[in-house]
Amino acid sequence: MTDSTIISKIWNLAGVLRDDGVGYGDYLEQITYLLFLKMADELNKPPYNKGLQFPRLKDVEGNEIKDGEICDWETLSSKRGAELESFYSQLLRSLSTEKGMLGQIFTKSQNKIQDPAKLSRVINMIDEEQWSMMGADIKGKIYEGLLEKNAEDTKSGAGQYFTPRALIKTMVACVQPKPLKTIADPACGTGGFFLAAYDWIVANNQLDREEKEFLKNDTFHGNEIVANTRRMCLMNMYLHNIGEIDGMSFISSNDALVSDDGSRYDYVLANPPFGKKSSMTITNEQGEAEKEDLSYNRQDFWETTSNKQLNFLQHIKTQLKITGEAAVVLPDNVLFEGGAGEEVRKQLMLTTDLHTILRLPTGLFYAHGVKANVLFFDNKPASKEAQTKEVWIYDYRTNIHHTLKKKQMTTTDLADFVKLYNPDNRHKRTETWSEENPDGRWRKYAYEEILARDKTNLDIFWLKDKSLTDLDNLPDPDILAGEIIENLESGLSSFKGIMETINGEI
Hints:
The protein is of the alpha/beta class.
């Protein structure tokens, strides 16, 4: 059976369960639990004979019941009816108290499929395939396909954890991570950057045994505070042959912004969550719930601010080794905002080589109203002079139209950017913009030019918007409508930010 057939088969069953009130996200969560158990069962049999140990059912205090049944696939798949539903719920609760990757996969797990007959159908469907015999590329493609379908379900909000894979692959193709190097993502979502980096390293290197071992167990380090997203990331990674089923988790559940844990990495690849402010919900004296700005008081930060994006940017700078490289997706406000934003931009250009900015079009992300960019910068040793000498900007926004469904962005669309970025020797680049060619999308600005701009503004554009002048060649109506919605939502978000500042609330 092909990977697309399996994806279709698994997703068709999601439609059946949706009639019972089981959302796509809940369904994918259950698939993750069951797939993990099935693969563990396969690995305990020949030719693997891995000897993985699963606990017996536990009581409410987390202690194994002496004569309790084993929490494994063999026991689960033998159950039927009400007994199946009861055992499955107890199994999930029992495994959530385990250590390592097993405990992380089953953290806060609950049975969302209340109909035993339909739960049995899902179990039988997974039981029909030999997952351990499949190539990692096929298993990974199946799970990635499910994650993408889940992200398309806009009502669930899952899209905020899903970065378009074409963009991720382009960023990795520019950075070109090397073997035996560490890669971090402080807001790793479902693991898209890790997987793209893994694929790049495997495809572009003849790895020896040490390099393969390092890639599998020591290369990747991430944070993801949402339990369900973290478990999907771990499963996604494992299906791509990263990590061990009985090993320790390399995805932390801690908020990356709270403190500097002292770890330093060769690469940071990230798309931190959208939304400008960090906040926490408190109960006031009247017993009402209200949100309060959350500022992270860290000595390693240049500025103390509640702006989540600026905090992630500062944290990523801290995470880099002296020779570390970063590629980060950030919204426009990071490029032009005054106050803390201006100071962070100045410090970033002083202490790192902020060499490239890719301006992205709207219509790429499942979170609407987002205008984003990719910042590429290399960390540098301390110096009296600014480490940034010039910033190269590629405008892939002006007169570019993409939608999530009809006209998705592909790696081919960004091939010209990668070529001009010149990852093999980025110190030898050629502008496509000139006085003679004002429509060139690739242009450089000297550090002094940027410093002279109001608020050290990096939100730079020079191309003319043709939709304002060429009324005969407007984009399709659905693309135009989508862009109008994006612009309205972006404007609305800005006004909300102003109101929050005025009212002192979120």
